[in-house]
Amino acid sequence: INIILTKDNNSYRSFYNALLHEGYRDLAALLQDGIPAISSGNGKTSMDGMTSYVKTILCEGGVPQRPVVFVTRPKLVDAIKQKLCCLGNDPGWVTVYGMAGCGKTVLTAEALRDHRLLEDYFPGGVHWISVGKQDKAGLLIKLQNLCSRLEHDSTLSQRPPLNIEEAKDRLRLLMLRKYPR
């Protein structure tokens, strides 16, 4: 408890939620009165500080939601945001790496929960795919799904790519022509 008290209000909330989620309702009840209030400045933000615009963009793009047990790591999230902003109008990549389970997905998804970042640097939205280790059939399904999501508003209804090479070519063209940023 002493460590949690040295952290921000989100840590306390996360600890409380973890107790509830893991079946320690009696302990959570003891802490319930101390849960910090969350202010919603302009009425446009929700309990977790996200605007409806951000929620819509992330939901449409398939970005993972915050886990029930969530601990903020603002320095790492800010570092990812800075790297994304450095891309500007130039095509490029930001790679987040680390051992399995260290929080790469959570950190990256958290960096995207920024209204200004999405509006300024991702005007076409975000399309999140989790690949992991896949056999060729599984990879083809992921690529077909991504092609379908990226072509959703296209006037030409195209059939899904039939093989990985065709999918790679179609994604390359989509990225260059329709989603250059």
Automatic annotation (TrEMBL):
Residues 75-178 form the NB-ARC domain. GO terms for biological process: apoptotic process. Pfam families: NB-ARC. GO terms for molecular function: ADP binding. One of its GO terms (cellular component) is cytosol. PANTHER family: APOPTOTIC PROTEASE-ACTIVATING FACTOR 1. This is APAF factor. It comes from Fregata magnificens.
